[in-house]
Amino acid sequence: MRRIxxxxxxxxxxxxxxxxxxxxxxxxxxHALTAHRQIDKLADRxxxxxxARAVVGSxxxxxxxxERLRVAGVGTEVLHGDAALAEVAADGEADTVMxxxxxxxxxxxxLAAARAGKRVLLANKEALVMSGAIFMDAVREHGxxxxxIDSEHNxxxxxxxxxxxRYRAGVARVVLTASGGPFRTRDPASLHDISPDEACAHxxxxxxxxxxxxxxxxxxxxxxxxxxxxxFGAPAERIEVLIHPQSIVHSMVAYADGSxxxxxGNPDMRTPIAYGLAYPERxxxxxxxxxxxxxxxxxxxxxxxxxxPCLALAFDALRAGGVAPAVLNAANEIAVDSFLQxxxxxxxxxxxxxxxxxxxxxxxxxxxxxxxxxxxxARALARTLVQAGGRASAGARAGANVxxxxxxxxxxxxxxxxxxxxxxxxxxxxxx
Length: 432
Ligand code: NDP
Ligand code: MG
What we know:
51% of the residues lie in helices and 13% in strands. It has helices at residues 12-22, 39-49, 59-72, 82-90, 107-115, 125-141, 151-159, 165-169, 196-200, 209-217, 219-232, 270-278, 292-295, 309-320, 324-340, 348-359, 368-389, 394-411, 413-421, 423-427, and strands at 2-7, 28-34, 53-56, 77-80, 96-99, 119-122, 145-148, 171-178, 239-243, 249-255, 260-264. Helix 2 (39-49) crosses helix 3 (59-72), helix 14 (309-320) packs across helix 18 and helix 14 crosses helix 19 (413-421).
C-alpha cells in the first residue's frame, strides 16, 4: 500500500490524482492533502479520503476547515502556512508526494519532498524552472525518485528511461509537442482584446487558469523546454518544439539511428498521473482508449515565434542560465495574474516578461536564497511595469514592449535560438 500526499489537492491535477487514487483503494491510501483557499472542496476531499493531515494557507482558513471537519466527524489534523506545507511534504509517514501546487509557491514543499527522499510526482514545473540544478542535486543526494507528470515529460520519460545511461548516449533530440493553444490560427492583430475566459478556453485540455493562459501564450511550452533541459540533461539545441494541434502525440525522443519513439494517448492527465503512481507498473487510469481512426489526421507544424514571443523568451532564459529562468517565471506569474485580474492585456504579457528579463537580476543560481532573491526582485520589477502600463495605456505599452523587446527577441534571438535548437523544424520558422 503506497501512502500518498497530494500538494495542491484542490486543483485540476489534484482532482485527476484523487480520481486515479479513488479507483485503486487496494493500492493507495491518502496521507495528507493541501490546498490554499478552497476550504469547502478540501473539506469534502478530507471526508472522502480521511487523510491524517491537511494544510491550508492561513490561520483563519485552518480554523474554518477544523470546524467543518469537526462537524463531519473527520479526525484529520489541520495545519497552515509555508512551514507546515514543507513539513507535510517531508513527512515520514508518506512515501509518495504529488507536487501539484501552481507556481513558485510549490518550490519549497517540492524541494522538501525531494530532500526527504520521496517518490516525487512532479507536476509543478515552475519549481524545476526556478531551481533546476538545486532541485536535481537534491533528488540525487537524497535518493528521491523523480517522475515527471507534465504530459510531455512523462511521454519523454516513457520513451527515455532516465535510469539507463545507454539510452542517453544515443539521443539526438527530444521533441516536445504543443497544441498551440486557443489562438494558434487567430489573427495576431485581434489578440489584444482577448478576455481571461477566452484565453483559458483551451481546445484540448481542461486545466487551472494560470497554465491555461501559459498555453495560450506558449509560455507553458517555454517553461517545459527548461523543464526538459533539467529532467533529461538535454542542452537547448537538442530540444525541439513542434505544434501538434490534436494533442495525441504527447512528445517524442529522436535517436541517433533515426528511430523516433513517441507516446500517444487521449489528452487526459490521468494517464501520466497513473503512470507516476504505479511506475513501473501500469494501472487503469479511467481514460478512454485511444481511437486513432477517429482521431484521423495527426498534424505537425513549426511554431511561429512572432506569434508566440514567450516561447522565444524562454529559450533565451535557458541559454542565459543562472537565475534567468527564475526571473522569466516570476515575471510571467505576475504578468499572467495581472492579465487575469484585468490590469493588463493579453498581448502585454510577453512585453512585461521581456522587460524584466532585460532589466532584472542576472546572478548565478547557486543557492536557494539566490534563486528566491531573484524571484522577489523580478516580481517587484514586473509589478512596477504593470502599474506603469496600467489598463488605460496598456495597448500602447503592449505595442511598444512587445515590439521592442519580445518582438525583437522573437525575430532575432529566439529565431536564431529556436532555429539552432530545434534543428530542421524551428529552423524553418518564418516569423510572420
Ligand atoms: P490549479 O490552479 O488548478 O490548482 C493549484 C493548486 O495549488 C490548488 O490546490 C491551490 O489551492 C494550490 N495553491 C495555489 N496557490 C497556492 C499557494 N500560494 N500555496 C499553496 N497552495 C497553493 O493548477 P493546476 O492543477 O492546473 O496546476 C498545478 C501544477 O501542475 C502547475 O504547476 C501546472 O503548471 C502543472 N501542470 C498542470 C497541468 C494540468 O493539466 N492542469 C498539466 C501539466 C502541468 P486552492 O484551490 O485552495 O487555491
Ligand atoms: Mg505540459
